[in-house]
Amino acid sequence: MSKYIMIVDDSATIRQTLKLTLIKAGYEIIEANDGKDALNKLNGKKVHLIISDVNMPNMDGIALLKEIKKTASHKFVPIMMLTTESQKTRVQEGKLAGAKAWLVKPFRPEQLLSAVNKLILP
Asked: What is the third-level CATH fold of 4-100?
C-alpha cells in the first residue's frame, strides 16, 4: 500500500526537489504551497507524514502545525519542519507545537530520507 507524504512549501523548486527524492523512495506526494492550501488539501485525506516549511505566506508552518494538531483525523500525523530557520527559539516553538523533526535547508537527500523513514506512520 502506498504511503502518502504532504509537502508544504511556498517554493516550487523545493517542492520539486523533495517530490523527486521521495517518489524515488516509493512515496506518493501531495503538494501544497502554504498552510491554508495544505489544510484544504488535507480535508479527509489520509497522509502518513507532513513535511512543511516554516516561513510561508497566508499561513506559516507553525500555525499550520497547530491547526493540524486540532483535527482529530490528523492529530497523530508526524510533522517534519524543513526550513532555513535554525534559531533555537523557533525550533523550540515548533517542537512545542508538535513538530517531530526539524531539518534545516539546504538538506542532503539521504538525510531527508533517513528522517522520513524514522517518522512515517506504519
From this structure: Rossmann fold (3.40.50)
